[in-house]
Amino acid sequence: MGDLTMKKSLRQLYFVVFMIHLLLYASCKTTKPEPEMAMKSTIVHCLDSIKASKAIVDDDIDGFFDKISIIDMAIQMKVSRNETDRPRMLMQYKSYLRSSVSNWKMEEKVEIEKIFAKAKAICDLVGPAVWPTDMNIIKIKTNHYGSDVYYTRGHNILIPENVFEEKEYDKQLPIMLHEIFHLISRYNPKVRDELYS
To answer: Comparing C-alpha atoms, which of 47, 13, 28, 70 is closest to residue 140?
Structure first.
């Protein structure tokens, strides 16, 4: 019984440490330049529009495209909801999504890689197994979900392009940690269950 209590206490401690570091990092502003490794690291991949157009329609583990309804597709595409042929609508929807990705500007890519270097440092404090592997970042237009809407699909974190207009990159860290947690939940059920418990 003592062993079980100890494990539960340890999991709670990990979660508290994770959240404290999240808050500390989100509130800090670094005045030193970020290390060069942030640019060359493979901790995250900023996909160009060609790779992103393929990744955005990759169904992966959640079966998103098996579950999405005709009505949901019509609302996102802003078309008539009278369509009854789901396979045809799904084909149009995937084509629509492929055209909803954007290329990265160099400044955006540099800043987002810095943010992910900070996010990885936070996750590493919890444990090396926490960080998701093969994580991709996709910049999307705001036509299907609207402004300021982030989401994940498979190993991809999708970021709306309007957030880069404000250039307030320090606000992105807590949001990215939230999105990373979705990937952790999806691909690392052991860590997910421990954090939730």
So the answer is: 47
pLDDT digits (tens, 9 = 90+) for 64-82: 999 999 999 999 999 987 8
Q: How many CB atoms lie within 10 A of CB 193?
A: 11
CB 60 within 8 A of CB 154: yes
Q: What are the structure tokens assigned to 89, written together?
A: 């609508």
Locus of tokens 């990159």 = 169
Residue 81 has phi, psi (to 5 degrees) of -95, 15
Sequence letter at residue 67? K
With vertex at residue 41, the alpha carbon angle to CA 108 and CA 164, rounded to the nearest 5 degrees, is 10
Q: Model confidence over 92-135: pLDDT tens digits?
A: 999 999 999 999 999 999 999 999 999 999 999 988 778 888 89
Tell me how far CA of residue 20 lies from CA of 13, 28, 132, 144, in angstroms: 10, 12, 20, 34
Place of tokens 């500007």: 105
Diameter of the chain by CA atoms? 61
On whether the pTM is more than 0.70, the answer is: yes
Q: How many CA atoms lie within 13 A of 47 on its CB side?
A: 23
